[in-house]
């Protein structure tokens, strides 16, 4: 479906071309993989780029199973139905949330340093990721970003399951998704190359974008 994340970002940018050179647009990538996609969109639209962290909250004793997500804005989203159904211990979930909070703080320092986040108030905010599976991290991100009072909130992803995308559409003003296959097992299935993105790559993409924007401003 996609060669790599850069390819996916360029294809999304084609669908978002109506926003090119709109000075009211900002693009946010969900690290780690989403920043690669977002960078291609920001480049094509000549828009500022930043990160917005939304990190899954893992189930106790099962780090691969997401109970919800926590964002860099402090927003917590939990799948209460699953928690009740599986009888997860609330105290242990609270500890998982605190551990996740610490990981987000580490990433923020690593990725952004002392740079302040872009202000989404009154802006057209595009939030991008390399794909959606359960949707927990994106649910949390969209709800947190909505509270920042953007003029318009768009979700841009290459691929996601149809039912999840329908639910996410309720949390934003517009969804741009390239593929919604009924048979959906993992985001990686839709990429030829889907290597893990490291922290250093995220920081590098943000620094590169910052230098480019700075050079454009002095022209």
| Poorly predicted tracts of residues | none
Just name the CATH architecture. 3-Layer(aba) Sandwich
Largest sheet strand order:
2-1-6-7-8
Distance between the termini: 39 Å
Structural class: alpha/beta
Spell the H/E element sequence.
HEHEEEEHHEHEHEH
Largest sheet: 5 strands, parallel
Helix content: 40-55%
CATH class (first level) name: Alpha Beta
Radius of gyration computed on alpha carbons? 17 Å
Number of domains: 1
Can you walk me through this structure?
It is a single chain. The chain contains seven helices and eight strands, in the order H-E-H-E-E-E-E-H-H-E-H-E-H-E-H. The strands form two sheets. The protein has a five-stranded parallel beta sheet, with helices on both faces. The mean pLDDT is 92. It has a single domain, classed as 3-Layer(aba) Sandwich (Rossmann fold). With 219 residues, the chain is of the alpha/beta class.
Short description:
The protein has 219 residues and is of the alpha/beta class. It has 7 helices and 8 strands.
């Amino acid at each position: 479906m996609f060669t790599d994340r850069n390819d996916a970002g360029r294809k999304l940018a084609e669908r978002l071309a109506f926003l090119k050179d709109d000075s009211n647009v900002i693009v946010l990538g969900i690290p780690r993989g989403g920043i690669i996609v977002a960078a291609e969109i920001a480049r094509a639209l000549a828009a500022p780029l930043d990160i917005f962290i939304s990190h899954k909250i893992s189930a106790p004793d099962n780090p691969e199973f997401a109970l919800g997500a926590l964002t860099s804005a402090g927003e917590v989203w939990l799948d209460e139905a699953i928690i009740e159904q599986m009888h997860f211990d609330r105290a242990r979930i609270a500890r998982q949330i605190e551990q996740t909070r610490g990981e987000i703080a580490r990433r923020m320092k690593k990725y952004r340093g002392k740079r302040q986040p872009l202000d989404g108030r009154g802006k057209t905010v595009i939030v991008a990721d390399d794909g959606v599976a359960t949707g927990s991290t994106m649910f949390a991100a969209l709800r947190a970003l909505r509270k920042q009072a953007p003029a318009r909130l768009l979700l841009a992803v290459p691929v996601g399951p149809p039912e999840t995308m329908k639910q996410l559409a309720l949390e934003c003003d517009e969804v741009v998704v390239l593929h919604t296959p009924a048979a959906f097992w993992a985001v990686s299935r839709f990429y030829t190359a889907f290597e893990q993105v490291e922290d250093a790559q995220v920081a590098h993409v943000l620094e590169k974008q910052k230098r480019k924007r700075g050079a454009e401003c002095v022209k």
